[in-house]
Amino acid sequence: MLSDTDLLATVATIYAQRETEQRATTTVSTMEIEAPLAGRALVVIVDDRTANSSEQDSTGPLVTELLTEAGFLVDGVVAVTSDEVDVRNALNTAVIGGVDLVVSIGGTGVSPRDVTPDVTAEVLDREIPGISEALRSSGISAGTLDAGLSRGLVGVSGSTLVVNLASSRAAIRDGMATLTPLAKQVIADLSVLDA
């Protein structure tokens, strides 16, 4: 016959084994779930130096990284000069190519060579001024003056959302943070209409 001490030790051992077994059977491993694709995107860099030389572009990779983090598949980055025909061709190619989002970087200021918003206005079917103003407002709030001075437009051409951003890294980072949730909503709305 077991003494009370032995009995308590045996019961404690049994409970310890059960607790260990339960922990082992209830352990939940991490499961990787692939996030849904937000859409296809194209980045257009409007910059004479980048388009005409082998100068390294630092904004294209930044925009690509931010779009990828937001769930977009980036088809590519295209560099064009600040020429109306070049900008128009790049935007039209993106729209005809069926991307969901085209983000142009640069050419949104007030100098005579800043023609991106003027050309974008010709390409758009419908402008979305609320997003343009949100981009400017968030840029000013973050202290990014060139975002606040941008004449950039946002709108829809066919079923493609077209966005103009200023070219500074700060304006891009802040603009993309403001843009991506809004872009996802517009793209979702447009895809319902296409279905």
What's the layout of helices and strands?
Layout: H1 4-26, E1 39-46, H2 48-52, H3 59-69, E2 72-80, H4 84-96, E3 101-105, H5 116-123, E4 126-127, H6 129-141, H7 145-148, E5 154-157, E6 160-165, H8 169-194
Parallel strand pairs: 1-2, 1-3, 3-6
Antiparallel strand pairs: 4-5, 5-6
Helix pairs in contact: 3-8, 4-5, 6-8
* Approximate helicity band: 40-55%
The side-by-side strand order for the widest beta sheet comes to: 2-1-3-6-5-4
Low-confidence segments, given as residue ranges, are 24-28
Tally of DSSP β-strands = 6
Features:
195 residues, six-stranded mixed sheet, alpha/beta
Describe this protein's structure.
The chain is of the alpha/beta class and 195 residues long. It is built from 8 helices and 6 strands; from the N terminus they run αβααβαβαβααββα. The protein has helices spanning 4-26, 48-52, 59-69, 84-96, 116-123, 129-141, 145-148, 169-194; strands at 39-46, 72-80, 101-105, 126-127, 154-157, 160-165. Strands 2-1-3-6-5-4 form a 6-stranded mixed sheet, with helices on both faces. Helix 6 (129-141) runs antiparallel to helix 8. The chain is globular and about 40 Å long. The chain starts with a helix and ends with a helix. Mean pLDDT is 86; it is low at 24-28.
